[in-house]
Amino acid sequence: MAYQAEYIWIDGTEPTPLLRSKTKILADDVTTPPVWGFDGSSTNQAPGDKSDCALQPVFTCPDPIRGGDNILVLCEVMLAQSNKPHPTNTRAACAKAAKKFAAEEMIFGIEQEYTMMRLDGSPLGFPKDGFPEPQGPYYCGVGAGRVVGREIIEEHTQACLDAGLLIEGTNAEVMPGQWEFQIGAADALTVSDHLTVARWLLHRIAEDYDVVISLAAKPQKGDWNGAGAHTNFSTKAMRNDKDMKAITAACNAIGKKVMEHVTNYGHDIESRLTGKHETAPWNKFSYGVSNRGASIRIPWQVEKTGRGYAEDRRPNANMDPYTVTRLLIETVCG
Ligand code: ADP
Ligand code: MN
Ligand code: MN
Ligand code: MN
């Protein structure tokens, strides 16, 4: 029987791109989703008189929402004329860097935080007027009044599993309405592809509840935590280390390129990385064992054994995983 393929791509919206998707019906004898196209003038990816952009399938998985034989098809956006990567296509550059430094076997785990919002723009769990009780009981909380939106998390986690994505866990976050899921650990392209599809599934599932998923870095001003995407990374050398040498060298290399990283870690990073709310100031680089107020945290188990991984705590929830992993590859391996 004919089946449905949901083609997903990243658009050209500024300052933070959005996800887009549309459905193609494939005949039952079609086993590989073909190249497709869309109107780039409606996604900030092309002028009206040269509006065609191409969708190049790069990652396919079962569609956990429609079920059956239906699939999700993540695509790179290509220029229709030349078949070169579109300027908004950051995956192509990530693929290049990953290939160049493949021998270092760098892998990543990304902690995606996000905030559930009502259609009027207020965070779920905030009273209609005013504020909830200050932060404290909400992180990993249980019970009404402490946790909201759990039905969406449950549905999303199962959907990621059904799709075969590398989801590792979930938790309620420090601010009411804020949650996290983790994807990894895997090479840069795999973790970024899985994260992108997991984000799409989250938006899609929350749609049924009239809940907006915000990846804004600081969705609520004041004494409320922002939303990040801590990016954990390791090279083969870091994993096989004995004395933290490779891990220290990686941190020092990243410390030499502070601005290059921070300016590419997502819109409005200055509002989130203030030095408060478990962050380090965006323009001051530091690293340390167990330190959640440092730019890069080295987990205590890693110091104990002298080997493992490090956590770059600076990327925003709205970061582009292809760009963040590419920069870490280039800086740490380069
Ligand atoms: P925390 O909330 O304490 O910062 P999490 O449990 O949310 O930590 O996330 C830990 C992340 O570290 C996971 O995404 C996991 O994939 C990642 N990770 C674990 N080991 C490695 C490793 N060797 N290399 C890269 N990432 C790793
Ligand atoms: Mn976490
Ligand atoms: Mn978190
Ligand atoms: Mn973390």
What do these coordinates show?
By secondary structure, this protein is α+β, with helices and mostly antiparallel strands. The protein has two domains: 87 residues, Ubiquitin-like (UB roll) (Roll); 230 residues, 2-Layer Sandwich (Creatine Kinase, Chain A, domain 2), CATH 3.30.590.10. The strands form two sheets. Strands 6, 7, 8, 9, 10, 11, 12 and 13 form an eight-stranded mixed sheet that branches. A five-stranded mixed sheet has the order 2-1-5-4-3, covered by helices on one side. Strand 1 and strand 2 form a beta hairpin. Helix 5 packs across helix 9. The longest helix is centred in the middle third of the chain and has 20 residues. The protein binds adenosine-5'-diphosphate and manganese (II) ion (3 copies). The site of one manganese (II) ion has 4 residues, from strand 6.
Query: What's the mean pLDDT score?
Result: 97
Tell me the number of strands. 13
- The CATH class of the largest domain is Alpha Beta
Shape: globular
Provide the helix percentage. Answer: 25-40%
N-to-C order of helices and strands: EEEEEHEHEEHEEHHHHEEHEH
Bound molecules: adenosine-5'-diphosphate, manganese (II) ion
Q: Which architecture name of the largest domain does CATH use?
A: 2-Layer Sandwich
The CATH superfamily of the largest domain is identified as: Glutamine synthetase/guanido kinase, catalytic domain
Sheet with the most strands, sense and barrel status? 8 strands, mixed
Beta-strand fraction estimate: 15-25%
Q: What is the CATH topology classification name of the largest domain?
A: Creatine Kinase, Chain A, domain 2
Distance between the termini: 49 Å
Q: Structural class of the secondary elements?
A: alpha+beta
Please count the helical segments: 9
Number of domains: 2
Rg for CA atoms: 20 Å
